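Lab notebook, page 48
Experiment: co-folding of the full assembly
Goal: obtain a model of how the components sit together before planning crosslinking
Operator: M.T.
Materials (sequences as entered):
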Amino acid sequence: MSAQTATLKSKQELIEKWSQPEVITGSEMLLRSLVLEGVECVFGYPGGAVLYIYDAMYGFSDFHHVLTRHEQGAIHAADGYARSTGKVGVVIATSGPGATNLVTGIATAYMDSVPLVIITGNVATSLIGTDAFQEADIVGITLPITKHSYQVRNVEDLPRIIHEAFHIANTGRKGPVLIDIPKDVSAQKGLFKPCKEVNLRGYNPTIHPNMKQVDKMLRAIEEAERPLLLVGGGAIHSGAFEELYEFVTKTEIPITTTLLGIGAFPSGHELHIGLPGMHGNWGANMAIQNADLLINIGARFDDRVTGRLDRFAPKAKIVHIDIDPAEIGKNVPTDVPIVGDVKTVLQTVNRSVKRAAKADAWRAQLREWKAQRPFTYNDSDTELKPQWVVQMIHETTKGDAIVTTDVGQHQMWVAQFYPFNKPRSMITSGGLGTMGFGFPSAIGAQIGNPGRTVVSINGDGGMQMCAQELAVCAIHNIPVKVAILNNQVLGMVRQWQEIIYDNRYSHIDLAGSPDFVKLAEAYGVKGFRASNKEEARKAWEAALAHPGPAVVEFVVSKYENVYPMVTPGSAIDEMILGDGE
Amino acid sequence: MRRHTISILVNDQPGVLQRVAGLFGRRGFNIESITVGASEEPGLSRMVIVTTGDSRTLEQIQKQLYKLIDVIKVVDISATPMVARELGLIKVDAEPSKRPEILGIVDTFRAAVVDIGASTMIVQVVGDTEKIDAMVELLKPYGIRELTRTGVTAMTRGNR
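Observation: model returned without errors.
Model output:
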């Protein structure tokens, strides 16, 4: 990969080369426009309706194309690339099944506000609407899960549409934008004029906050005796790490970070109280329920965070900072609405905000609560515990890896036992909860961050939903370190069936899974297996030391549950505490 | 729960009706009627949607609509004095012996007869929703063969 990177010309050179007006095909326009948008890498899978596009890519070296083994792998990889770099992820797929295979990935990105540009081919304009071979109305199918979408009818619209798509995807509340290109449009020639301006009357995200509301927030901070921050993915999307750090250290307001907000603030900091919500720590949930001022910064009061809504933060005045006005007041009635970009809002606030002076008793209380009941589990000498594995991975990567997760128990254990100190380091499908996301997203994260250790932690269920992408790791020598916490069961479903469905274990047994070491090796990827602590550490260290990709299967205990747990319908201070308690 | 009449200025793009109607559907907002047509500005269309909901629902409807890139402006015109009109066509059984009575009703409503067949008439009535409801009620005893209504279109009064 590094050799390929060297062949990329300097940006300026490329921009000059591709900025000249010229009569070219739609496919060539697409490639040039992508280069002009600064695209370095696209993930894709060819097929009939994108043959002209792939023909134009033959020998094209101004960005990389990564051929995945399934379109779903491609879009999750593009998503991992986008989340870990802050740049727009790009994916290309053909019409019909190629496009519909992207749907889960589009919805995943939409729920978590990830900027993607999705290029799909479609049948020729003359065939649209005739149920032609491999025709699907992908624009219609994806209307509810895209920020915006286009079907290109005129080749000369392409440069404008692509420029608009990148602008829309990566500004305001970010999200996926789909561009559907009928086959004849990709073949047709037209005059290529690079588009440099965006003129969208209906799209003007509010960046700067209303000063009246900011003043209200400042006053609320002054008066608060029990202030608390709830920080979500918006803080990371807006790149507000330094501003948030300044805000917290100036005000000394204790902070909780949601699943998607993990890394927005160093979790080792004494003011960091933890993770709120269904599997959050006791201290964080108690903090929310007792706060008299809750400042939400770029989180959306998701039901996994709030638990029972009518008993959420019952004593708190609510301040909500969000770039999407529709999030404010959607779930929780808000006292001080602040629409704006988190970074810009905090810059504004930081100019005049002061230490929350009345909150000393509260700070002491929260320190005590945090220490009183940290995340815990019953370790064992005979069985390998998944939580221990996550802690071991944290220790051996010095807490500095990019970690992608799949969805389920292991995802929560990563949130609980792998403390992060940097943004864009915990890559996880929070909103949609997409199994199969963990591994391919690591491929994208590694491509976007060649210098960092990228670890993908998966369950044995989710790993089998996109395992085919091991081929991509092997061929391009993408050194992702894949951990599989194999408990031979769909663990989170098992946990719910145990606790809520009276031990009626219905269809959760994953017996019959492949030997993951052999599976890795079948793709030419180094494989390891470990069943006890000693083996686990040894295998994991060997995997980290190995220069290429590696898979480590950890055979872990089957009956482990994620605690604390707030069952659906309960308020978040009604937690089931763990066995370790 | 209140009835709201929302006027939405949108780009005249393929699929824009689908985007707006789909948004209402998937977020559980009710549509009582929807009309679409050209606006005063080339390239833009205006939709008028009649919906019901409390003030929080209405706020969400407006905010969610603004998230659509093709939506330029959203106004709850029922919050201000407005003119709201719809048109109804009613095909009513009208044997020659009954016609004078029906014509009497039509005159009173300042409606019009726009077609006469051997035993039917088509009555065209324009007005607010209540007026058309009333007209329909009065014609029911004669036998309504077919009824079609445009849905409400509306604008604010005065200089706004």
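Interpretation: The interface with chain A takes residues 10-11, 14-15, 18-19, 22, 26, 56, 59-60, 63-64, 66-72 of chain B (CB under 8 Å).
Next step: discuss with group before ordering constructs.
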